[in-house]
Amino acid sequence: MELNDFIKKFAEQFEETAPEEIQASTEFKSLEEWSSLTSLSILAMVDDEYDVALKGDDIKNAVTVEDLFNKVASKA
């Protein structure tokens, strides 16, 4: 599992946010497009791509995209 690959897949969950705006250090909940629907898309993507079941608390406790990647990596 690679961080850059995770960032790319994470960025694909956003329709209006340019992929280059999303980096490892991006505080994703501060993105204008962030919503509960986006959160569900992220949960589904992680389950499909990495076979990891994240919980809502995992997203709530993560601040940056890299925080979320580390959580997924720790469960993979």
Which descriptors apply to this entry?
76 residues; mainly alpha; 0% strand
Short summary:
By secondary structure, the protein is mainly alpha-helical. Helix content is 54%, strand content 0%.
Can you describe this structure?
By secondary structure, the chain is an all-alpha fold. Helices cover about 55% and strands about 0% of the residues.
Q: Bin the strand percentage.
A: under 5%
H/I helix tally: 4
Largest sheet: none
Say how many strands there are.
0
Structural class, by secondary structure, is mainly alpha
Shape: globular
What is the fold's blueprint, element by element?
Blueprint: H1 3-11, H2 36-50, H3 56-61, H4 65-75
